[in-house]
Amino acid sequence: MAAEIKVQKVDEGEFRVTVTEGSTESTHLVGVKPEYHRKLAGGQVDEAQLVRASFEFLLEREAKESILTRFDLPVIGRYFPEYETEIKKKLTG
Q: What is the pLDDT of residue 43?
């Protein structure tokens, strides 16, 4: 069963992400700086879509319980060096 990912903007450049799988859920606060958003999405998608795609990427590689509860998007690349390349491909075709 696929996870349900809800992305909610809580402040400028900050999003609350709730991941639900079956009867369990996890909540994460994610920071997105405008320049990083531009670098990865190239104006193709909004910040919320970038955050959602980033969580899809993470959930393909680890359990929701393994995802940090608070982080800025560039942190993903420290754990998964292929992150930026994969996300750019996914978002910009």
A: 84
Angstrom distance (rounded) from CA 68 to CA 65: 8
pTM for the model stands at 0.95
Say how many residues make up the chain.
93
Going from the C-alpha of 47 to that of each of 1, 37, 69, the distances in angstroms are: 26, 6, 18
CB under 8 Å to 33, separation ≥6 — which residues?
A: 13, 72, 73
Tokens of 41: 């999405």
DSSP code at position 25: E
Distance between CA 69 and CA 92 in Å, rounded?
27
